[in-house]
Structure formats: C-alpha cells, structure tokens
C-alpha cells in the first residue's frame, strides 16, 4: 500500500514548455536539525516542478545574517530576489525577533513577480509557546514582500505530507511559465 509520501503533487510538469525554467530557493535557519527539513522541502519543490525546471538552493544560518557588512547585504539581496524564501525555525518556546528583523529588511518583490515565503516551524519536542506570534509575524512579512505565505508544523511528521506545499508551488510555476511565455512571445517593436 503506498504511503503518503508517494502521493504526487497536483502540478503537471508536462505542461511546461521548454527546458530552461529556473527556480531559486533561499533558506534561512536558526536551529539544529534544519538542514534535513530544508533538503526535504527543496526536494519536494524540485520533484513537483519536474525535469524542465532547474532548482538552485542556498542555505544561510541566521547567526551569519545578524552580522553587518557585505555578507549580510549580499544574503539579503539574494533572499529578496529568490522565487522561494524559506524560514526554518526549531523550537518555538521563544520568539526569534532576529529572523523577523532580517525579513523586514528585505525589499519587496517588484510588480509582475510572484514568490513564496515558506515557514517550516517547530521541532520534535512540540514546543509551540510562540507559534502564534511567529506565524503572525511571517504572514505580515510575506504581505510586505508581496509573497504568498505557506507554512507547516514540522517535527516527527515533516516528510509525510506535501499537499500543503502543492498549491503554492503550482501557482508559482504557472506564474513563471506565463511570464516566460509572455517574454518569449513579446511582439517586436521597430
């Protein structure tokens, strides 16, 4: 009997024309164990996109982004331009204002762009004291940056269900495909 991981996402990659679609995923994390969750989410996004899309991924530890200077500026610029911005937090027994401050420092997506802000929240210990605060702040940041917000409580069942991710990824791919097609078929002006 197939498990929940074997259920395909709704986006049909065969609808995508051409083999040059690009997706840039930028992840910032604050706690131990985040690497596994980030890899899982990036792989789920890449699987749903299919072979016609190249998915690149960057991961930055929040501690590095707190520093001032060129490294922080470069990471902030790269994150703001990414198709998918992922914020991964471990235990939610305390607020993480440094993550929200960093997201607040980002420029919004320009008009005509669509992007996602994905929150992978929680850990195996199920400490959720600050879940409401964190989710509200991430929603606010997503609205400010003109991104759709998706989130999932991770922990012991983070690799079983991709359905919460499917609609947002499908919308992103469809938007990028229509934008690329409009650029490709733009009438020439003389």
Structure write-up:
With 190 residues, the protein is α/β, with parallel strands linked by helices. The protein has a single domain, classed as Rossmann fold (3-Layer(aba) Sandwich). The chain is 41% helix and 18% strand. It has six helices and five strands. The protein has helices spanning 34-49, 62-66, 70-81, 97-104, 131-144, 163-184, and strands spanning 21-29, 53-61, 84-88, 116-121, 148-153. Strands 2-1-3-4-5 form a five-stranded parallel sheet, sandwiched between helices. Helix 4 (97-104) links the parallel strand 3 (84-88) and strand 4 (116-121). Helix 1 crosses helix 6 (163-184). The protein is globular and about 40 Å long. The N and C termini lie far apart (61 Å). The model is unreliable at 1-19 and 182-190 (pLDDT under 50).
* Molecular shape: globular
User: What is the average of the pLDDT values?
Assistant: 79
Q: Determine the CATH superfamily.
A: Flavodoxin domain
Number of domains: 1
Reported by name, the CATH topology is Rossmann fold
Roughly what fraction of the amino acids lie in strands?
15-25%
- Topology pattern, helix = H, strand = E: EHEHHEHEHEH
- Please compute the radius of gyration using only Cα atoms: 17 Å
Q: In order across it, which strands form the biggest sheet?
A: 2-1-3-4-5
Please tally the helical runs, counting DSSP H or I stretches of 4 or more residues: 6
Record the SSE blueprint:
Layout: E1 21-29, H1 34-49, E2 53-61, H2 62-66, H3 70-81, E3 84-88, H4 97-104, E4 116-121, H5 131-144, E5 148-153, H6 163-184
């Amino acid at each position: 009997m197939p498990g929940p991981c074997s259920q395909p996402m709704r986006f049909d990659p065969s609808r995508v024309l051409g083999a040059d679609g690009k997706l840039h995923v930028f992840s910032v994390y604050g706690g131990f164990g985040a690497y596994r969750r980030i890899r899982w989410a990036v792989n789920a996004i890449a699987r749903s996109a299919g072979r016609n899309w190249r998915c690149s991924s960057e991961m930055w530890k929040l501690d590095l982004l707190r520093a001032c200077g060129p490294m922080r500026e470069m990471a902030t610029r790269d994150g703001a331009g990414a198709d998918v911005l992922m914020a991964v937090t471990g235990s939610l027994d305390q607020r993480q204002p440094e993550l929200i401050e960093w997201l607040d420092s980002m420029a919004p997506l320009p008009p005509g762009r669509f992007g996602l802000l994905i929150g992978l929240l929680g850990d195996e210990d199920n400490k959720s004291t600050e879940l409401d605060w964190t989710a509200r702040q991430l929603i606010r940041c997503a609205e400010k940056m003109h991104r759709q917000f998706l989130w999932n409580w991770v922990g012991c069942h983070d690799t079983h269900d991709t359905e919460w991710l499917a609609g947002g990824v499908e919308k992103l791919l469809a938007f990028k495909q229509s934008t690329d097609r409009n650029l490709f078929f733009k009438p020439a002006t003389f």
